[in-house]
Amino acid sequence: MALVDRLDRIDRNILAALSREGRLSMSEVASKVGLSKTPVQARVKRLEAEGYIRGYAAMVDRERMGEGHVAFVQVKLSDTRSAALDAFNRAVLAVPEVEQCHMIASSFDYLLKVRTTDIASYRWVLGEKISALPHVSQTSTYVAMETVKDSWPRASR
């Protein structure tokens, strides 16, 4: 049985409510899903314990933080045996500018989302950090001109 099969409609509604606004009180979540506070608290604790809820975070405006430059980088490795992949995976975790790293089934091996202050700082990160990661043989960069949709919910204004 797949893990997602363990979720009923109420669990899904709780997850939807909290993913839109993680600071809802249990009473507010309860009113949204049609239960009282106590069973909602028990369900949220279970969803946390089972890993459906991995944590809670503030949605930071990265532009205001001076980190508005986004680039997507295709990375091709010179070696794709398990040891080389593991070395790359461990090393990329230490690069704070890499916001996301995905192994890809394509003509390249990884797709990185890199966030920096501007193109000059991105160029430095690419040359000094990303290109120096284990087994990197080639990179291609795509600079984001505008973010049209992001997976994070928008804060209400």
UniProtKB/TrEMBL annotation:
Q: For this protein, what is any one GO molecular function term?
A: sequence-specific DNA binding
Q: Which domain of life is it from?
A: Bacteria
| CDD domains registered for this protein in UniProt | HTH_ARSR
> One Gene Ontology cellular component annotation?
cytosol
Residue span, HTH asnC-type domain: 7-68
Q: Does the keyword rRNA-binding apply?
A: no
GO terms classed as biological process: regulation of DNA-templated transcription; response to amino acid
TM segment ranges: none
- Give the matching InterPro entries: ArsR-like_HTH, AsnC-type_HTH_dom, Dimeric_a/b-barrel, Tscrpt_reg_AsnC-like, Tscrpt_reg_AsnC/Lrp_C, Tscrpt_reg_HTH_AsnC-type_CS, WH-like_DNA-bd_sf, WH_DNA-bd_sf
| Pfam families the record matches | AsnC_trans_reg, HTH_24
Matches recorded under SMART domains: HTH_ASNC
Q: Which UniProt keywords apply?
A: Activator, DNA-binding, Transcription, Transcription regulation
Q: Could you say which residues form the signal peptide?
A: none
Instruction: State the PANTHER family in the record.
Output: LEUCINE-RESPONSIVE REGULATORY PROTEIN
Indicate what this protein is called per its UniProt record.
HTH asnC-type domain-containing protein
Taxonomic source organism? Aquibium oceanicum
